[in-house]
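User: quick one, fold this
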Amino acid sequence: MARMFVGREAERATFAAGCASALSGAPRLFLLHGPPGIGKTSLLHAFAAHALQVGFRVMEAHAEELGRSPGGIAQALEALLRPARPAQADASPVALLLDGWERVRALDEVAQAALLRLVEGRCVVVLAGREPPSAGIRASELFRRSIVPIALRALTGPEAISFLDRRKVPAARQREILAFANGYPLALALAADAWRNDGVTRAFSPTDSLIGTLWDHFFASIPDEHAHAALDACAVLRLTDEESVAALFPECDARRGFAWLRDLSFVERTEGGLYLHDLARDLAVRDMKWRNPRRYAEVLRRALDRICRRFERLSGDASDATPGTAVRLRAPRELARLPAPPVAGCPAEWHSALAEFSCLFRGITTAGAGLFVPGNLDLTVEAGDACGLEEACAAIRKYEGDEQAGVAAHWYARQPSSLTVVRGPAGELVAFVFNVRVDRTDASDREKDPVIARAWRWMEREMAGRPWGEVFFARHWMTVEAYQGLHGASALCGSIMVAPFLRSEHASFAFQTFWKEYLDSTLQAFESVFLPRKLPEFTFVAGDREQLVVCYDRRGATAVQWLEGVAQRALSKAEDGPATTLHLPFTPVALERDAFVAAVRDALRALEDPAALAVSPLLDARMVVAASSPAASRDERVAALRAVLVAAIDALEGEGAPLRSVLRATYLAGGGTHERAAESLRLSYGTFRRYLARGVEALIGRLWLLDGGEPR
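Assistant:
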């Protein structure tokens, strides 16, 4: 099994440090927690293998073996840990790995604390369960002094690929499995086995047996119809509160169902409501559609009607964004799970409603889940930003050539409010949109842009005369790092592009340009719902990229009527069969500070070892994606990660110069010992160690800011 294990480098390093501490007489207690299927048991086996290697007596057990009463559990724990007691003449180090801790967690907090105090001597204890430490335990002196919580998340993209590689799933067959499993190890393993058993020449498709197995892991005990109603509501809605459960299921006890839902380990609490983890959400939607298709359609109908009524209350506010107006977005790292922030030119309520509306399509097409959801950055959005014009034109020049950059500059000169820029925490340009009001142009304007001139002539033919109504054209839009790859910032661009079209009382058309490679991979997933009209006669080449234009027609309909049409097509599609899978471009991952620090330290030690770098969580980091590309292979990301680290070391100047020399001698000089590195620099070993510690801290600080982290 060891050869099949992948990832979890930071968690394994944390455990290894705990073992070293325990050998010196300082016990360590880890509370490992995460939802079902996330890989807790496999990680416990990896911990056991390491503990054996470094001389521990290893005991693995399940909480159900300890009994049910506090006294019985205490006796069992004391017996298991007795060999590690300092009073024992032949005390030997003990590693106790206890799975299923949620069974003991059901005890009151006083009983839990009493059990945890039994951990002493040369021992390391890992308690693995579904739930994080309770509020009472976290507030205790024991927690602050001795307990290390470890939250287990889904595997990263590279880790999930490595997981399938080790199970001999060829790269050509991995995409469907990766899209289905959402990084959950259990789902990856079961899907790989199901694909192999079904015939290795065929594409993967989840079987009823596979869905049933995963369903049992997540939802083995749903107590009653009130809980089932709350789960169904949470599966359909982006964020769920008690009021929304009552609105979708008036016949059920919403308070009772919501109380059950909020305590599930795979449901996250946010300021805006409860968010169901992706794999659990997909399973719940699949089950609802299989169990009762009419109920699913009715729930979706109620939810869509509720959102359309919300748009109805918001309609009529079509004022333009004021040039120079900035809106600060403090978006959390898992932004899809929290209320959508405001966007310049799109009030917070509109943006939130758009995000909620698009998420309803998860069970129909996965295009909807993130279409209007902004990214995982600390962002500032500004309309009519003159300072951003030069930067935006530079990005257009890079991706689409000089001619298109000139077109963008022309439209900014004529309509400053056409430009909306998205900036990161350090003021750097992240993304932008040029959304031109075509109905406000004249013939001389349009002569400078053949694409918009062509759109005008097309509308004259379509309307049999001069075009009328408000017409919007998202002429240029992109992220600086990934062009039109759909990560957080490009999804925010989508919201900026569509909001004026929906907010306008008199809109007729909205046009958008798309890179053909991007459009071909996404349009199939939602064209039957949103009805974008492809205009092949508009095809043109920008730089070396073939561009297509699509058009949305809202003539004779209010925004709410148009959205209701989308909703009706969605409902019809919901009754037709399983969701269409949309494979979106890669999204950078933002690590928490502690995980980032651990990952940088591990990567430095592995600078000359490509195999070790290939499992680094930093491969998914924004700074590495920016240095390669969202479509880069693992080998390309490894090379990019090494280049980023070396460049950051070399960038240490001034007072950092001796630190730079120490870092290079330690990590880039062929793997010699620290003593040899100190000798080569003619430094005493004590001075070398101080410089090394300061250098690593300076490097981590520089990389943290480069990756978009908050200054410390």
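User: anything notable?
Assistant: The chain has 31 helices and 16 strands.
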